Amino acid sequence: MIESPLSSLCSGGQTGGMTEEKCPQLVDYFVVAGLDPAGPWRPLDEDGKPVTDLAVIAKGLGEEVPEGFTCIERTLGGHSAELSAGLINNPHLFLCYRRGRDKPPILDLGVLYEGKEQLKQGWYVIETTPYSRSASLSTGGAPTAHRVFLTYRRALDSQGLHTLGVTDIALLLPSKGEVAPHTFCRVDKNLNTGMWGPALYVCYKRAVAKANALVYEASLISRYPEEDLEAFPLPESVPVFCLPMGVTVESWPLNTKYQLPVFSTFVLTSASGDKVYGAAIQFYESFPRELLSERQSVRLGLLSVVDRRPITNRSLQVKKSICVLSHWPFFTVFQKFLTFIYRYSISGPHVLPLEKHISSFMHNVPFPSPQRPRILVQLSPYDNLLLCQPVSSPLPLSGASFLKLLQNLGPENACTLLLAVLTEHKLLLHSLRPDVLTSVSEALVSMSFPLRWICPYIPLCPLQMADVLLAPMPFIVGVHSSYFDLYDPPTDVVCVDLDTNTIFQSEDKKPLSWRSLPRKHGKTLFNTLTNLHKTLEKICTPGQEEATLEFLLTDYDQIYRRQKQLELEIQEVFLRFMSCLLRGYRTFLLPITQAPSDTTTDCSSLFNLQGFLKSRDRTQQKFYSQLTKTQMFTQFIEECSFVSDRHACLEFFDECVQKVDVEKPEEVRLIDLDETHSGEHTVFIMPPEEPQEPDGSECPALYSYETFPTLKPELFDQPQDQLRVPAKGSAPDSPAPRRTKQEIKLAQKRAQKYSAVPDMWSKCLLGHCYGLWFIYLPTFVRAESAKVRALHTAYDVLKHMENRKVVLPDEVCYRILMQLCGQYGQPVLAVRVLLEMKKAGITPNTITYGYYNKAVLESKWPSTNQGGRLRWAKLRNVLLAVAQFRQPIKRRQKSGSRPRPHSNLVRQSSWSGLSESSSHESLTGPLVKSNSLNSMKTSSDSKRTFLFLTGTSLSVGSDLDLTDTPSPAYPLRRSWDANQEGAGLEVLMSSCSLCRSCNSLVYDEEIMAGWTSDDSNLNSSCPFCCASFVPFLNAEICDLGPISPESPEFGLCCGLSTQRTAEPPRYLTPQTVSFSSHLPPHLTVRLSVPQGSSVGGAPQVTVAYLSPLVLRKELESLLENEGEAVLAQPQFLDSHSIIFWNLVWYFQRLGLPSNLLQLVRASPLVSQFTQSESSAVRVRLLWDTLTPDTDQWPPLYILWRIHRSAVLTAPCTLLPPGGVPMRSYSWRRHNHPFTLSFLEEVLRWVGMNEVHKAVTLFLDTLAKQPGSPRIQRSLYREFLFLTLAAMGKDHVAAFDKKYKAAYSRLSSTLGREELRKKRAQPPSPKAVDCRRSFHPPLEC
């Protein structure tokens, strides 16, 4: 199979085509953030010190609070926090605590019931008060076995520095309605063991217990590149997101364990809604003491408080972060790369500087594409990473991980949070794992698709932006759990702890429950997620290292595919739920059909809300009422009603809604993996090469770093070929919206389905041809002076398509016309187009509906008052009507002769448009035909005899359908200006191609029948040998000389025998010109002189003959890359010859108006012609080949003409009907058996309906000849052309039927296989239907 000529490849060593000139850039920026030594240090609020000591005091016995301790005198609700309230001899015990950093922090609190349980190892008991009295919380006289004590557990001295510690303690009375605050842990043991009094419980909060630390706002230390990219400037807030809790300068004990880097991710959203993904790792490195002031050193414990003596047993550390920014959420890959860069900085020395590895990754690693599904990046001899092509899905790309969502929340909480998102609650997610925050937050906003979260959304919120939690609007915010060391969350916020899988809600509100979702769909969602959660627990095993290359290329693929499949299944569950939830919503959309008012764009005017609610179950009314009041739903209705950047996603959702509209929607697959481009091809990216000394030895290792360095621009490698940031959308100047991936996918499925049905394949091709014209329509309308008339012409084309039952692959035809109606202020016509669309049984999708509403909303509607122009028009019609009634009266008053019909306008009709030579005036009258029987009589006019050497009206190209062709339903503009007189150019075109496997000529309808549904396949199938071959389209240009507007060339080439007074054709001198093309070398465009031509050396342009499916794909690719203006530029013919000539061919076949022929006059092809500005161009489409092989026997219809003209010894110049000279060839003398008597005998058998005898005569005649017959046409084609040439169209009305009957009769005697070998079979049903749908060319 030969791939599409203009398809692009972007893999190594191959040139890019039109679709994608350069590879998308994977990484945009590399950033180093931290505390700039030279810049200003902006301090942030310090976190609280951990609790290091506990004490119980007896205030009733005169004990006081120890120095440095804080006494808890009140519970959370403001009641007395006395620990011994239930005792008989109440000593009034209270709990006290002390904060500090002089000893390891307390990790946990507990209660010991002595005698009932044993003290755990590592725990301490508070047995006495600071004043050596008993600290038992039980009755003073109780036996030892029943005493109750508070206990605690302390961190070890050798334990890691940043461990969890107790930072706050509180007491609560559940009987008073008090509950533990969010992030507090309650010890579920009652402290009050007395006979009376309420139950009392202790609770505490744990957080990271840091060393002595100062916190500052992060700043930018260095970046690469230093200049902002034009498409994406570096946001100033990136350092703050790299270190969301600020930069900490800390002093550590010398025996502190090394802290591993922490990976985090974040998402930045631009004003336009575009997302930029950030991946960062945070690490500690040494910090010079010289940069600290004395006050800062004292606070960090580096100087003694009294004598300011340096303390040498502590080290000074600072937090720093390195980060990459990208438009793609490859978080795992970025984590590996950043980890490698960090390890490279702390090891060494190295031969290459750190900057070389950064620039190598940014410049040399491309985005994975279908041509490069896997990219293995070798960072060093021991470090590598693998990039895999993301899943091709119509859903929006995001950094969501539904695996982590289900893993960290479970089925029940996941459903509950879906309810919270759909009803727009305030959600606060927190975790000690920053990367999990981003992945789960992205999944939360993705699982409500197609509803889009438009309220504040910060997956990883820096400390400086925490004020967003006080906003009086819904939000989704993620924070590090250490945020709660400083602040308490607002009471109206739903807090979600991803580390403990708990949801905390305020007590004064009814708690959220997933059971509030619609019962049937909610239960299905919960059950499916439960099953997937069980599967997830089985396959997601932590700790698999991917160190070796063998693992990367084998095991990793299996694990990645399993996880990718499960990820899609979880996503599909939520998508199915949303599809069922909004099922049938499009029927309640209200299109704009009147002049817009102030309330036209309101949601109530765009959507029938009450009808939608009534269509839902009564038990679900409360939920749907809440849903429809959200900002998300209002935004969704507006996006469905108007043009939106999400139209492709919304169109995909509409398809999902249609799929789930079945009895068992849970069994329907909604997300189909696009495996068409999947492959095992792996591209290897090698690490940067190490330099060598001149003698070949290794260079010395000079680069080592004590801390992560400030990047030096001079050490970066400059890119050889800068990768580009992927462009979004089509060319801005093109009003024609391109098809979405989903529309293309559906069109391919339909084409694949119709290719197996003969009577539908032609209609499918016809639909794509009309799609081509409507894609060209904006260019045509722009070039027309009467633009409104051109729009009405397009509307008439739509109606004609409906009459012909054309199978449209998509809605682009309607969509483009609607958009042009808006562009040129024709809202009423847009409404008519919508009605025509619904009449055709097509429900507009989201994209078309949006363009329709945009057209009728933004256009100026005509006034409802009758203006002067309308009144004058009415008066004119009345006067014309009166004049028409008076004409017959005047005729009767004259002679009694029969009145002759009067017409001042000659009209013609032929919908096929193949003989009109692109004549596009209003053609509605009857078609003038020559009578082939009368024309067989010898004419006394010598000039007329010269015009018709055969003595017949040559109607070889007439419709083989042989039924009256329908008249056009729309006015067509003539490509010849009737007011012009000047030199005319004629373009002869033919699609007849030679199959080199069997040396047979394959004609247009057979080529069409052999095309496949693959829009990248140029091949057709030969009907004789079944071999694949590339068909070609041939065109010749000649100068017709001065043309009179009244000459028959302005009419139809349908057999008019009119004398011509123009000069004979003048052809170009022989030359050969090569054109640049995206075809493979053997398919390049050729412009040369055909060997067999003797007509002045006419040049011939040869291009690949593309099926409408392939041509449409390439045309859309051209417009996307170069814009719509390219179709009107003179260089279009030369730069894109394949597309140009194919468009001309199809437009002429269907009689569709265009301005393409005007580009021929400005082409270098006609530079040698003498032409004026008024020169016109016409096209003649020929059925037979333009360059017959004169080494072969002449075809029968040529021999018939030659015999009838009695010119047998010299080349002849034949003139077909209409006076246009036929091209002649120097046919060599051959010993062929086709005499005049033979031809007459064949015609006699055909005329007598004995076609089988004519076939037998032909085969017997060939069998008597020595050697193999030198013919390239099939027997059917020879007889067809001969019959048409000799008898005309009227005598061959049933030729196909007769030939098919003769073939069936002969098959019983000779056998079908034998007839097939002799190329005697008739065309296939698919080919016949293609001929009937397109109509063949009208000339040979």
Brief descriptors of the model:
35 strands; 31% helix; seven-stranded mixed β-sheet; single chain; alpha+beta
Protein described:
PPR repeats lie at residues 810-844. There is one protein chain. This protein is α+β, with helices and mostly antiparallel strands and 1340 residues long. Helix content is 31%, strand content 15%. Strands 1, 11, 12, 13, 14, 15 and 16 form a 7-stranded antiparallel beta sheet that branches. Strand 22 (494-497) and strand 23 form a beta hairpin. Helix 24 (1004-1010) crosses helix 35 (1325-1334).
In terms of quaternary structure, the protein is single chain
User: Based on DSSP secondary structure assignment, what is the total number of beta strands?
Assistant: 35
The proportion of residues in beta strands is 5-15%
Could you say which overall geometry the principal axes of the C-alpha atoms support?
elongated
Please state the CA-atom Rg, rounded to the nearest Å: 42 Å
SS-derived structural category: alpha+beta
Question: What is the mean predicted local confidence, pLDDT?
Answer: 75
Query: Sheet with the most strands?
Result: 7 strands, antiparallel
Number of helices: 35
Low-confidence regions: 1-22, 542-554, 675-679, 722-736, 897-983, 1043-1096, 1207-1223
Roughly how many Å apart are the termini? 31 Å
Helix content: 25-40%
